Amino acid sequence: MRNAAIYLLAFTGGFTIMSIELLGGRIMAPWFGTGVYVWGSIITVFMVALSIGYLVGGRLSLATPSLSRFGILFLGGALFIGPLLFFGTEVMAWVFERWEDPRYGSLLAAMVLFFPPTVMLGMISPYSVRLLVRQTEHSGNVAGLLYFVSTFGSAVGTLGTSFYFVLWFEVDTIIAGLIGLLLLAAVAGIVVARLTETRA
Amino acid sequence: MIRRTLLPLLVLLAAAAPLRAEVIHEEASLYRNILVRQLGSERCLLFTVRRSDRNQSCIDLDDPDRLVFPYARMMLAGLLVNPEPKRILMVGLGGGSLPRTFTALFPEAKQDIVEIDEAVVRVAEEYFLFEPTERMEVHVRDARVFVKRALAAGETWDYVMLDAFTGDYIPEHLMTREFLEEVRGVLAPGGVLVANTFASSQLYEHESATYADVFPHVAELRLPITLNRILLATADGWPDEETLAARADALVPPLRRFAVDPRTLARNVDPDFEFDRQARVLTDQYAPVNLLRDD
Fold first, then answer.
1. CA distance B100 to B133
2. For residues A130 and B96, what is the distance between their CA atoms, to the nearest angstrom?
3. A30/B contact by beta carbon, under 8 A
4. How far apart are the C-alpha atoms of B99 and B291, rounded to whole Å?
5. Which chain A residues touch B30 with a CB distance below 8 Å?
6. Bridging pattern class, strands B87-91 and B55-60
7. How far apart are CA A41 and CA A52, in angstroms?
């Protein structure tokens, strides 16, 4: 149950990351257009944020790793997505007024809006590996399975968002849904931690 | 002489295979595949190879003034609303035949052209006789960003044309209520918005509803010869039928060389066209344009 929960949460993390990245293009288009540079900015910010998230997540897993701390990563992700929902327009308007060049404008806005939550969500993968690995000889296998699950989650998040969610919901509704999903994941992590810890 | 020997040959060729257009230029720009094809004296700009039947813009090299496409001729219908534009904004350059037409019609008018793809500007100049004039400025940028900045700077235009097509359809962020509100904001008093759209798609109702949501007066222009439909929108009063007819009559001589019959345009402009008023308005929050189209 514990391992299944970790994989499920890693799936949720991957799903959320790509869903937000995809919506990022939509959110920025009214202010910075849809030129290739806008996607360039978004993808750059996500890649840098993920790389830092991996680094920090790995470091964090060194000191008393636990499933409940793992759940807190999701809580952090949910909190950091919040500004996108509540101050997204203000941030983009502020940048728009100050940066004439839409390349650097979009880069800066993407940095402010997407960097913090993506760093948080990037921490999930290495932390999951730490929680799952029991013996060194299994570490490659565990990491492979974990990448599979979280990247598959990313694929589902991309497809679901671009094919269906944007047709069914408004952008802000989808983001609110993702925040809800992460909160649910955080609670699930902490509950499962309680259950498995009392049993152990 | 030549004709006598060529003709049977041509007939033979035509019988053997349909006339094939010759590709005279092909390039992959940052945004799309650009193709220039020529058939006889007609040269056309295409944006995707996949849907090779969809021309963006055509020019007749033997008669470069003639607006080959019905939709291009229909884009002049805005002159019925504002017959003397001093400042003209064109979104989406294509082959540049409309800016050429407006330069010929109103040499004193100031024209701003917004085109996202630098390669399209180059191709228009190289293959479609498009020549920027002193009174013209070509802005290579995203139209949404351009209009937002213009609005912030307090710029206005009398005649705004929206003709931003990718190989597929109009980009989503140029179809929303928020965008049209920005466009309304850059319309000068008495200014008119002329937008090229398709009559055939599922988007028809959504587009109509969105335009009607932003502008108090929206008219539709459709002709049986084409699936394009032109939307005319203005924030000020709509001219009565007499005024429209009088303006059409006055436009007959100047528009002749472009093969445009303003009387036909005036007859087919419908300010009371019907659409589904329950259709959902497209917004920045909700604009699944390509998904709605394929319903």
1. 9
2. 60
3. yes
4. 32
5. 36
6. unpaired
7. 17
Q: What is the mean pLDDT of chain B?
A: 89
DSSP-derived secondary structure letter, B67: B
**What span, in angstroms and rounded, lies between the C-alpha atoms of B12 and A51?**
66
pLDDT at A122 over 70: yes
Residue type (1 letter), B74: M
Residue-wise pLDDT tens digits, B206-230: 999 999 999 999 999 999 888 889 9
pLDDT attached to residue A125 = 96
- Angle, vertex CA B178, rays to CA B175 and CA B89, nearest 5: 65
ipTM (interface predicted TM): 0.87
Q: Does A85 touch chain B (CB under 8 A)?
A: no
Specify whether the CB–CB gap between B145 and B164 falls below 8 A: no
Which is catalytic among the residues B60, B158, B163, B284?
Answer: B163
Using a CB-CB cut-off of 8 Å, the residues of chain A touching B142 are 32-35, 102
What CA–CA distance (Å, rounded) separates A105 from A103? 5
Strands B42-46 and B136-139: unpaired
Taking contacts as CB-CB distances below 8 angstroms, the residues of chain A near B176 are 30
Q: Count of residues for chain A?
A: 200
DSSP A163: I
**Beta strand B55-60 pairing with B42-46:** antiparallel
- Could you give the CA distance from residue A67 to residue A187 in angstroms, rounded to a whole number? 11
DSSP string covering B137-179: EEE-S-HHHHHHHHHHHT--EEEEEE----SSS--GGGSSHHH
pLDDT digits (tens, 9 = 90+) for A3-54: 999 999 999 999 999 999 999 999 999 999 988 899 999 999 999 999 999 9
B228-234 β-sheet, strand order: B136-139, B110-114, B87-91, B157-162, B187-198, B228-234, B217-222, B269-270
In this structure, which amino acid lies at residue B104? A
Nearest to B128 by CA among B109, B150, B101: B101
CB atoms within 10 A of CB A139: 14
Structure tokens belonging to residue A191: 């509950």
Which of B32, B114, B142 to probe by mutation at the A interface, max A CB count within 10 Å? B142
N- to C-terminal Cα distance for chain B?
A: 56
DSSP A164: I
The answer on pLDDT for B18 being more than 60 is no
Q: B237: exposed, middle or buried (C-beta count within 10 Å: 0-12, 13-18, 19+)?
A: exposed
Cβ atoms within 10 Å of B104's Cβ, excluding its own = 12
Closest residue of chain B to A100, computed from CA coordinates: B149
What is the CB neighbour count within 10 angstroms for residue B108? Answer: 8
Segment (H or E) for A38: helix A36-60
Task: List the structure tokens of A86.
Answer: 């509540």
